[in-house]
Amino acid sequence: MSKKFTSTIAGASILITIVGLFGKGLGLFREVIFANSFGISVNYNLYLVGAVLPLTINTIILYIGQNYFIPNYNRIKTESENNAGNFVGSTFWIFTSGGIILSLLLLLFSGPFVSLYLKESSSAALSSTTEIFRIFLITIPINAAYSILAAYLQSEFEFKYPAYSQLFLNVSIILLVIFFSGSIGVLTIPLGYVLGTFFQLGYLIIKIHGKISLNITNLFNIEKFSGFAAATFLITVLIESISQLFLLADRYFYSYVDKGGIASLNYAMNLFMLPVSIISVALATAIFPSLSQSFNNKNLSDLKSKLNSFFSINTFLFIPISFILILYGDIIIKILFQRGQFDTNATLMTFNVLRFYVLSLVFYSSYAVINKLLYSVNLIKSLLIITVAGCILKILLNFSLVGIYKQDGLALSTTLSYLFFFLCGGFLIYNKLKIGMNFFLKELLFNLLNGLISYLIVTILSSILLDKSMVINDLMKLTAFLAIYLFNSKIIKQNAISMFSNVYQGFRNREAV
């Protein structure tokens, strides 16, 4: 694949999706190993509590690195190439030093934080969870440095190196769990995570060598980029920090849910996020720099065209995925996880949670690009208001629903909050940019109707031809559903089919699509 093709939105999306498929395949294999080794055991639930804050912080930092760095880097680069290079170096060291300070502060208060989540637990549980928490703190400054290098390479349309680097993390965790879980248990996960983040950072440092100076003296150039960039940074930090409070909010209800409830939420969320992280995040990552350029060039028609193209592809892909997870999710969970410590009760609990999550799948995956668009057009103050309101809604719903529905209530509150984000983001785009959501609604209804028709056909045929009691027949129905859905879309020449055809031709010719 030539560099020219991978520097386009289509080429970058294909590359990130392919690498993402492999990476998420490793991630799914990792979850299978976790299920086999730890199931929904008490130790695994304690690991999830100990890991949640450091991992949430790492996610926040990655999003800040991308959402803050890319628009500001492009703006500075149009003024001065030299200043852009200095901006990379100074931001790298600001993030790294900030990560070190944050890790030390969290280390100081690690005991009280863990105690907040494990109010009535034994001293052994508190000790083991605190140890996990402290190991994960090592990764925060490493991840902070990595996030800036990844954002820089994406700004330069070098998407492949950040995509490849993500593979190191899962490989490290998988190897340590396979070889050492028998001796040190769940500690293999945080130790593997530390090792993987070191490899990620080292790989990107090698790839940017000779392009950008990472001399620590760049730290003192930060005054050149004060003003708008500093204000943007602070708002971005608030947005990404608040938006990641969902996991923290759910872990707080550890003692309110059924035994294994937190683990079932985790397994279900990983399945829910799998297609989002492979498809929507790939598209959003590839399109983000281009959206920023279109807005800076005041080309709103081009911006609208790119947004509608995303909606067409996204709804086309996520409607059948939603049908599959709601109708056949238990079979998927059984095949992937049900072995070792993961029993039939764990499968049922995880499936019930998953169905609540999936109700928001199309909307949440679509919000991935709406969020990037709001950053691109400098509507971050409005985005902050939406984020704060959505987080408050999530917390209120948690308290309202967990007493009745336990872990299912926590999943439902997440779904309603995701829907809120999508509706508010869509309204903001219409109000500020006069870009309506009619195209999205049209594509949603069209693909939803196609999905319903496909499901009815499969149901009628299976009632005549198949024995309902066999698992293999459920897999055959799943496959038939996808085949009929794709056949219908091709027959009526759905928009997304034409787009995929154009991308394929561009790939063959190594030209921009």
Straight-line N-to-C gap:
14 Å
Strand tally: 0
Instruction: Report the major sheet.
Output: none
Compressed to H and E, one letter per element, the order equals HHHHHHHHHHHHHHHHHHHHH
User: Given the structure, what is the number of helices?
Assistant: 21
Uncertain segments are 1-11
Helix content: over 70%
Mean pLDDT: 78
Strand content: under 5%
Backbone structural class? mainly alpha
Taking Cα atoms only, what radius of gyration do you get, to the nearest Å? 23 Å
Shape: globular
What is the strand and helix layout of this fold?
Elements: H1 3-6, H2 9-38, H3 42-79, H4 81-108, H5 110-117, H6 123-137, H7 139-155, H8 160-165, H9 167-184, H10 188-208, H11 228-243, H12 245-251, H13 261-296, H14 300-337, H15 344-358, H16 361-376, H17 380-405, H18 407-433, H19 438-465, H20 471-491, H21 495-509
Helix pairs in contact: 2-9, 2-13, 3-4, 3-6, 3-7, 3-11, 3-12, 3-13, 4-7, 5-6, 6-10, 7-10, 9-10, 11-17, 12-17, 13-14, 13-15, 13-16, 13-18, 14-15, 14-16, 14-19, 14-20, 14-21, 15-18, 16-18, 17-18, 19-20
Describe this structure as you would to a colleague:
With 513 residues, the chain is an all-alpha fold. The protein has 21 helices and no strands. It has helices at residues 3-6, 9-38, 42-79, 81-108, 110-117, 123-137, 139-155, 160-165, 167-184, 188-208, 228-243, 245-251, 261-296, 300-337, 344-358, 361-376, 380-405, 407-433, 438-465, 471-491, 495-509. Helix 3 (42-79) packs parallel to helix 6 and helix 11 (228-243) packs parallel to helix 17 (380-405). The longest helix has 38 residues, at 42-79. It is globular and about 75 Å long. It starts with a helix and ends with a helix. Residues 1-11 have low confidence and may be disordered.
